[in-house]
Amino acid sequence: MENKEKAMVVRQNPGISRDAIKYIAMLTMFINHAANALVPAESPWFEVLTDIGYFTAVTMCFFLVEGYQYTHSRKNYALRLLIFALISQVPYVMALQFGMLNMLFTLFFCFLILHVRHRVSNGFARNLLVVLLVFVTLFCDWSLLAAIYTILFDRAAGDKRKQAVSFGIAALLFGLLNWMSYALQMAPLPALGHAVLSCIGIGVSGIVVLNFYNGKKGKRSGRFSKWFFYIFYPAHLFVLWLIRLGLGV
Q: What is the pTM of this model?
């Protein structure tokens, strides 16, 4: 009887699928990018909207690790990341005015880091290649941080306690770097407040993934969801670029 009741609870509380969390991540990314493209940096809304978007990168790094483990073809996975990274680069630069490689390039290099960690048996060669790939991410969006997040989640794979620690380290590291940046513009205490607020997105990601993610891809997941996540990235950047052109900003 007790087992039946437990099963009923599981059916009634199915949690959130991977695809659903990714859709949330796409939304928060769009909010962040819209702020960077269209909202003046001096506006109080700029910080609020960009902070919301910090949910996305750490979430995508977590699912990149999962994707590497469960994908049917790692070669095709890597090729999709690279192809859409190339497609996205011009819209990325024009929409956001960032002079670096876009986030899909970052995820591509993080995917290579995972591949090296899992497939290169020689310890020296493995560590050297990982360091080189981490260095390459310095020229990408979420430079260095995304690579560190990916390594943390890879080391913590399958262990919720370690995953929670990894999310905590991710938030602390991001907060520390932001505090150092804000401290150049204001007094240390207000800078600390801004840095703490910037960590909320990462904290929320950890709460959602660790407490509500049901470990499933999604009931209606298929080719649409698979390709939507790739197509949305260059498409939303292209739209923001057109809006900037229309507004003359």
A: 0.91
